[in-house]
């Protein structure tokens, strides 16, 4: 069975549709169930299943007839269904409600536009703008209506305001250019047109279209977040019990940090003094010191902060210290007993050197290569003057490289006080917020080319008041991070982030000015983020209430001047006052060395609520939270593909009507709580937790009963390959059988090394045995499925049949090489047999492993820690003394555990390189000598590589060696002999179908070519049928008689390990992947798009299937004593979502056989066929975490036709 975490992407697994309210339900319970039914409708709507969505919204209205959001959403679903009369009825009823949001009026405006009722549409959009003057979609619609009326001068300021609000809005910018030009402002129009073209080519812009999720926020369904007044819980009586906190015997603390030192899922304490540091394990009671002696620090180090995080991906938390003396890194190792934790100073080994008095530091995967890099800031150590930030890249081998000049160019020196890594624009890469001593907040945006660009002014940060301190989190629950700004003086603000990449300041009266430190945290476990600050008069709490309002509740929590009131309080007395929390503690004492003020948040007593540790003037104080009605839900992360601590992950939780998102980080001062803890309010259980890992893997975990009881979940990142290439299934007479995946050479945007991209080879001939393809009702049937996280561009598919004498075998010459040979080349072979002996890379006999294709692979590879990489190694073959010097052919069947773009970046930092498989033979001195530099990389799972051994031997030895540094796993190794003489000099090279050669060397654009990156080749249109008779083979091409695109879903994996195989008959409609927003080919007949290699593509999204049929009668009668082998001729490209690949965020732009690199300039005009065929829209990479029932596998009868409807939930 497919693991649940794979088959559930979005959803509430315990949700059922409740059609009637229970008699004893409170109004809040009724509304909670209405929200749950509504959220399930939103899930269907975001899968474009409008009819089922409407049914769910009607169910919500049955539960609660006065529920306005469900009525608004019903109008949206009916509009897109389309059932415009029903949509108008629902929208009108919603708009008449006193609590109506702008959505209803906006929908009425869209419908009026579609029906050419200009006056009604103008009036509707103007009413929306009265309620929300800054709604860009309404401004664009209003401006377009004015353009229709030729009111060009009136339209210019409307579009101008839209562009001012959303500088990245392509639709607004384009229409502004049109309005300016037609209003006679030709120079302005030309300048705006140039801006539009630049923005469109960046891929950064947003656009509007006539499909769901593409018409503005008020045309998107309303989904609950838990901040709504009708479901927000009654405020709890949050209280804190306070005590002085000391560690060990009289140890005073200069710095305290928290992190999971012993890998038990809970945060522990790191206590730093001028003399050294100590580690204390959090037991829920008194912290336990790990050893009696401190780990020492140099006398002049003067620590200012610390971070607990895994820096070397060994699964153990290390310690990074920063201060006046710069940086110190201590690596965790096993103690002398083999069980105790110990640390060793590896600072000198890392190569990190700095002249900074380091006042802030952050460990963050800047380049998304799977390990944490280091960013530091502060002041000049000598005179305290401003200094640039510094960035150090983790090389993955224990060393770091200074990349400051390239990563953070053109810096203005500053005295940096805080670094907060966060994904500001939600593009999956980590940006950097920096607070300076001058009070300015700077944003460095990740440009995905190993560099950052300072864009503070562009995003509106320069308009904020000078900040004393800041806290970052998604307070407004819109998915984008917000910034709570404690002003130096005057009024504080909440800078609200949004999809327009700009921050908007809102008053934040509950946040005191002049705070010393701050963090966003759900202090009272109600599911809403609050702000906790350390101020001059102590700890303060600004609690968020329903609707987004904040209130300073400090005076009701017992925190006011608490540190002065109870400086010597015994923690055991505090705990006894919290008997309801069933805690046991002993006195922890206090300390008193001068220290920077600090705020640390963690679940100190393991009670399920967030406690507060402060450090002031060398004294640590613990504030234990109490009065929380329901313990929170704890999540711990372990990365496998991402950095092992999961630093930079986005973690979402859905519990009924409640949704919350937290982001992990490792920074000093701390930017977020040390523990991931979700408050639930009064909701009894969590439905699902979803993690978007830094590596891009989306992983949803439905929460079962046992996990609910523990109220804790450890999420181990799924080590799965999100992309490969399309899968091929063939009808074998009984069922559709998995053959292989193919078109791996057509991968676009693959980064081989920093700044070097491969050039795709989109053509492949896939071998299909005769027993794998049987005619059914006079037709041969194939299925090509897109089941991974990639967009597929199919240009051509046809069937090639090769008839040949029985007792012979035919193989195409395939495999990924840097310079593909021209034309389809096949080898006709006889006497195929196992080789005499196989020795694997470790020197072990693997002859039995290589005897047959049975998934028992020749192994012993010396793997490197980077995915896809191994140390140079070889597989040695003894072919047997009788092997002739001419006519012998080696057949190698296997698969490649390949590296992704991010893996190649990581490998380059450590000095690793990929060397493709080469052929070596023994020379006259018995030494290995390379005679073929590239035999080909198997890109299918499996694929057979054909190696011609004619005239390759340099001595009497018949030993050969396959040498490589790639992870290639050979399943079967055979030797064969060419068939009898034929009409071609190279027997079996029978025809050139759709290929012409190109000289090897450098790419057309002058870029250095990867040693194994595929070279682009020119193409011509294949003729519909070609036959060749060289006395030993007959080749016939058969075009598809039908080709149909449909959304099907995802097949069940049947293999427990790579290479994966699949059961076509078992399918789920729930996607485990992200998907690229964009326009995809509409479902239905796509035969015209696949006839020829002509750059007219079937653009396929994950879950799609192309069903192919070929007429058996188009083939000649098989000669007596002959047999038949099939080839699928495919031509196409694919692109995946690895963050270091080119253009990983959207389906556009299209590829072309004319391109010299991808992406090609988007200034190429949109072709007419694309406009006609590509009407299916995907609006989001990841759907909102709404309400989705269990996604279970569906068993089909063998050969059942058709496919699941898009988004159909079985």
UniProtKB/TrEMBL annotation:
Record bears the keyword Signal: yes
ASPIC/UnbV domain residues: 646-699
SMART domains listed in its UniProt record: TPR (SM00028)
InterPro entries: FG-GAP, Integrin_alpha_N, TPR-like_helical_dom_sf, TPR_rpt, UnbV_ASPIC
Source organism of the structure: Luteitalea pratensis
Keywords of the record: Lipoprotein, Signal, TPR repeat
Gene3D superfamilies: Integrin alpha, N-terminal, Tetratricopeptide repeat domain
Name recorded for this polypeptide: Putative PEP-CTERM system TPR-repeat lipoprotein
Signal peptide: none
